[in-house]
Amino acid sequence: MSRPANKRQENSKISRELFVLTYGALVAQLCKDYEQDEDVNRHLDRMGHNIGIRLVEDFLARSAVRKCRSYSETVGMIAQVAFKLYLGITPTVSCSNTKGNEFSLILDKNPLVDFVEELPAGRSSLCYCSLLCGIIRGALEMVHLAAEVTFIQDSLKGDSVTEIGIAFLKKLEDKKPKRNNLK
Q: Residue 183: inside a domain, yes or no?
């Protein structure tokens, strides 16, 4: 017997809200553990990177997407499929340069900050959502794309939107196992 669609959506919303609340508690604990915002940002990015590496398999299994042939297709897939699947939103994509290797994901609403009104006092250089940058970077590495992923605008810092910049650096080579030649 299958679940009704509205029950699945409700469970997804509950899971997303639980994740957002848990994430807030994690950031608060990291702020207690580390005095410098840069240390917290680095730790969140590293955690995100590890999540991204593991998330690719789940994403590919759940979405049944085909291989992307361009950076533009890849960013479109991240925005239209991955963000929708895991966070329930679809960011706007814009290309930032003529070479076609720099893009922005613009989030009108960032679900990770649903329960956050402002950054803690004295934490002006904290990048609360660094986890997202790490996730994107880690996932791209797993599909053999090196990228620099950074926050350009942050709604928690007074910007009207949250903007994540993705600059593709290069395609990584598939490492093929060396063959043992028995003589």
A: no
Q: What is the CATH number of the domain that holds 130?
A: 3.30.1380.20
Based on its alpha-carbon atoms, the radius of gyration of the chain, rounded to whole angstroms, reads 18
User: Structure pTM?
Assistant: 0.85
**How many Cβ atoms from other residues are within 10 Å of residue 93's Cβ?**
16
- For residue 171, the SS3 value is strand
Residue 58 maps to a domain: yes
The domain total for the chain is 1
Residues 114 and 129: beta-carbon distance below 8 Å: no
Q: What is the DSSP letter of 113?
A: G
Residue 59 lies in domain: 5-171
Each residue's pLDDT tens digit, 127-163: 999 999 999 999 999 999 999 999 999 999 989 999 9
Is 57 within the bounds of a domain?
A: yes
Give 111's Cβ-side CA count (13 Å radius).
19
